[in-house]
Design brief:
InterPro entries: RNaseH_sf (IPR036397). With 134 residues, the protein is mainly α. It has 5 helices and 2 strands, in the order αβαβααα. Strands 1-2 form a two-stranded parallel sheet. The relative contact order is 0.09.
């Protein structure tokens, strides 16, 4: 499914440059053919499972797919119950197409803010823990 024109269209339509792939750990994405495709498409810009940049496992607060996209899609797709499988597929496609570049930029800023918060909390936690030990 990754090897479609939709992936390339997403980059072009949203004028995305310097795109990184954030691995969600799905078993289907761990196959050698998918890993090879991801390296061809993204080079070293792969985050997460078996990627070039590690990512904390089970971190939905830092993963845009979890804290934004799935909820957004469910809200759009199931505003009223789909009548047929084709209706469901069309709604999913339409909902994805309706994510604007401005929304993607807001999500990106939110990720950066969330990462900074984690760094601050980690530093504070380490400071408190070290203070208690000393």
């Amino acid at each position: 499914m990754l090897k479609t024109e939709r992936l390339k269209c997403t980059f072009v339509c949203f004028q995305l440059r310097n795109v990184w792939f954030q691995h969600d750990g799905a078993p289907a994405h761990k196959t050698s053919s998918v890993k090879q495709y991801l390296v061809e498409e993204f080079g070293e810009q792969i985050i997460g499972y078996d990627g070039f940049q590690e990512w904390p496992p089970r971190s939905p607060d830092l993963t845009p797919m979890y804290f934004f996209l799935w909820g957004y899609l469910k809200q759009q797709v199931y505003a009223t119950p789909p009548k047929t499988l084709q209706d469901l597929e069309r709604r999913i496609t339409d909902a994805c197409a309706n994510v604007t570049p401005a929304t993607l930029h807001r999500v990106q800023r939110d990720v950066q803010a969330r990462v900074q918060m984690c760094i601050m909390l980690t530093e504070r936690s380490l400071h408190i823990e070290n203070k208690g030990i000393l």
